[in-house]
Amino acid sequence: MHAIPGWMCNVDFEHELGEAAGGVTIYASEKDLRKHRTCVNSTAEEDCFCYPAEVVTMSKEDFLKLLDMAAIDPVTVSASNSYPAVWTKEQGLVK
């Protein structure tokens, strides 16, 4: 299984990913994100919307395999970023 970490603006993650017609950018590092997206030059404590969000990308096949390992029905996962969009270690999806 292959997962690639990245960074994006939390507004893009929460509201645009899966919805934006032109797509959104995932940056290789938090430094790159802050350099190219000045809206994220704050923290979650300072700005409740626009702050850096660390994300992990993987192939659809790997994602489906991960769902299977966690006993999560893929039908319950929305194609958009409607909640629940992220599972936690406690739910068994991420180690």
Structural summary, described in words:
There is one protein chain. It contains three helices and two strands. The two termini are 13 Å apart. The chain is elongated and about 40 Å long. By secondary structure, it is α+β, with helices and mostly antiparallel strands. A two-stranded antiparallel ribbon has the order 1-2. The model is unreliable at 80-85 (pLDDT under 50). It has one domain (3-77). It is 25% helix and 15% strand.
State the secondary-structure class. Answer: alpha+beta
Mean of pLDDT: 78
What's the helical proportion of residues?
25-40%
Secondary-structure element order, as H and E?
EHHEH
SS elements, strand count: 2
**Low-confidence segments:** 80-85
General form: elongated
Total DSSP helices: 3
Biggest sheet architecture: 2 strands, antiparallel
Residues in β-strands, percent: 5-15%
Name the quaternary structure.
single chain
Major sheet: arrangement of strands: 1-2
The Cα radius of gyration reads 14 Å
Number of domains: 1
Whole-Å distance between the termini? 13 Å
Concise synopsis of the structure shown:
The protein is an alpha+beta fold and 95 residues long.
Q: Topology of this structure?
A:
Elements: E1 3-9, H1 10-16, H2 30-36, E2 52-58, H3 60-69
Antiparallel strand pairs: 1-2
Question: Which descriptors would you attach to this protein?
Answer:
15% strand; alpha+beta; 95 residues
